[in-house]
Specification:
The chain is mainly α. Among the domains are: about 100 residues, no CATH class; about 90 residues, Fusion Protein Consisting Of Minor Coat Protein, Glycine Rich Linker, Tola, And A His Tag, Chain: A, Domain 2. It is built from 5 helices and 3 strands. A 3-stranded antiparallel β-sheet has the order 2-1-3. A hairpin with a 5-residue loop joins β1 and β2. α1 runs antiparallel to α2 and α3 crosses α5. The longest helix is centred in the middle third of the chain and has 148 residues. It is rod-shaped and about 215 Å long. The protein starts with a helix and ends with a strand.
């Protein structure tokens, strides 16, 4: 086999090794061992087939073949180590990402829990504030109700007191007015009696003035009932008893007078309109 063929076979072996790098370590080792044995068998077979003479001593380029195999092995080991490093780096990156994701999730959960706790505290504070406000409003309404009741009660008591005071004042005023009316009536009664007595005396004097004088009438009396109009006009004369001669003379004297003195005051006239008097000389 020529040097170029060996180089090509080594290259093919390297290519196979590259493909093997994507396999797991057991598969890589298996394929590597099979390939190495295949190469050695191929070299021996070629040497036996094309060299009837005893094997000559190794040519000077033999170390090149050995170096090629050694380089391929080193490259394979380097690639395997690089693949392992890359796999380890990927695993580490994945673990870092997993930890970062877990830490982020943990932080998110902590933030969510803190947010929920804060919202719960805020809701509890708002509810407590609302309850406190409701209690304040209820207390305010209760206080306003009590104040209204107290004001209404005070107003009712004041009205009751004022009504009692007015009633007492009215009673006193009525009593005073009654006393005044009684006093006034008493005064007027006295005045009326005085006036009645005065007009009675005037009527008697008028009758005497119209009565013809006769000594036979001396010591005699006569009772007459006279009815008068408001003008003093005599509407009726009635003899009630006494000396007949004197009574006839007195009746004639009244008729001659036609009018008798009478007061313009209604209450005085009321006592004079139907008067009974005694005529005596």
């Amino acid at each position: 086999m020529s040097k170029s063929e060996l180089s090509n076979k080594s290259t093919s072996q390297v290519s196979k090794s590259k493909k093997a790098s994507s396999m797991n370590p057991e598969q890589v080792g298996l394929y590597k061992s099979l390939g190495l044995h295949a190469v050695v068998a191929a070299v021996l077979l070629i040497s036996v087939s094309f060299s009837p003479d005893p094997l000559p001593s190794m040519p000077s380029n033999a170390p090149v073949i050995e170096a090629t195999f050694i380089d391929a092995q080193a490259i394979e080991d380097k690639k395997r180590a690089q693949a392992q490093a890359e796999a380890q780096a990927r695993a580490q990156e994945q673990e870092r990402q997993r930890k970062a994701k877990a830490e982020a999730e943990k932080k998110r959960q902590q933030q969510l829990a803190a947010k929920r706790a804060r919202e719960k505290r805020e809701a509890e504070a708002a509810e407590a504030k609302r309850q406190k406000e409701l209690e304040r409003l209820a207390a305010q309404k209760e206080q306003a109700r009590k104040e209204r009741e107290a004001a209404a009660k005070a107003e009712a008591e004041l009205k009751k007191k004022e009504a009692a005071e007015r009633a007492e004042m009215e009673r006193k005023m009525q009593a005073q007015l009654a006393q005044e009316r009684a006093a006034q009536q008493e005064r007027r009664r006295k005045v009326v009696l005085s006036e009645v007595e005065r007009y009675t005396a005037l009527i008697q004097q008028t009758i005497k003035n119209n009565l013809y004088s006769d000594d036979s009438y001396s010591g005699k009396t006569c009772r007459l009932n006279i009815k008068l109009a408001t003008t003093g006009f005599v509407t009726s004369i009635r003899v009630l008893g006494g000396n007949d001669a004197l009574c006839r003379a007195a009746e004639s004297a009244v008729r001659r007078a036609e009018k008798l003195p009478v007061s313009d005051a209604p209450d005085v006239y009321e006592q004079l309109k139907d008067i009974t008097l005694k005529v005596e000389l």
